Amino acid sequence: MNIKKKFKILPLILILPLLLSSCKRAIRTETFEVRNEGVALNEDIREQISGKSENSEKKNSQYQPLNYKEQKAIWFSYIDLAEFISGKSKSEFKASISTALENVSNAGFNTVYIHVRAFEDSFYKSKLFPKTSYLGTHTYDPLKIIISKAHKLNLSVHAWINPFRCGNITTIESTADTYPIKQWYNDDKKNGKYIVSVANDEHLWLNPAYSDVRQLVADGVIEIVENYKVDGIHFDDYFYPTTDKSFDKSAFNKSGSTNLSEWRIENINKMVRLVYNSIKEKNKNVVLGISPQGNIENDYQLQFADVKTWCSEDGYVDYITPQVYYGYSSTSPYLDTIKRWNKLKTNKNISLIIGLAEYKVISEDEYINNKGIIAEQIKDAKELSNYSGIAIYNYKNLFIADAEYSDRVKSEYTYITKELSE
Fold it and tell me: What is the residue range of 408's domain?
């Protein structure tokens, strides 16, 4: 909470006593989600003591985001947060998340991607999206608590959002009618267009073909940037959920376009540009990052994500974090893949962060059998001419290992922390 003190202009001898006296005084049951293949001031101490001004009335316009030239990031997925929040009081959550953030800081990370909206549900106070079910009847604000603790540890906080993925029919039907997604679901003219079901997927999805949908995504981002001292906004690789032509057939037929893939790509680009500009209008120093799939062809053919444009042109992103979740002997070899991304990133204003799959040290042979593989991948990433950092997926799999994998994960942790310190 900002506590603003306004002092009249007094002689120095009167001001000093006043200044001195003022000094007295955590439901889903998944274990983890397998995903697709300079410190700035940060405390509430920027008070205006020289008089009231128009700028002092703008809630977060004075916040100078905390970001690093070299990102050393870790993803906190909604599943990580669920374990800290589910059935926990505010004090219990505060204690557990504080320990988690301390663990991250002690390991040498400087940035956290916090999953604040995974299924159009919010881990923060929102007028646009319903509260996450993990909070139950609790009313505390997880994001506020996370930001406060993280900034005390000089950790940059990026609010991670899935822009289009919604809950299932049951959760949507239980959502209050005050929220846009429920209103669209209830509207016969918009259900099936704005909000769409997809074959073999329990989730409903928002359709980026419509300007109202794209605006909701942007408004959701604006809400966070206005109300929280976040340092960045982070999207991952969930854009179009299917290549099926029926998903957005009506909108495409009315668009006048003849190429479905190009049209879908432009829909995503419209959303990204809108979000980017919306952020910069509120706080030009809050960054926008996207974490697309590591396979560039998949980005275009499956997600309709225009990563080449995002890496080369202004007005889309500030950083790109491709999920290079591949081993050295993979069908998409790690070294070849990061070199492709390095070549793709031609805009000097955009940072390249390499996303790494630490969770594979307990699930894939090459990772299981090669101790220090993640650290080796970090080292190789550092050799890229456009290197600006790494990001590791995810917190739980690095810090809360199941007993049967404990020794393997502890070993990998040792190698990772050593490399982060180099």
Answer: 12-420
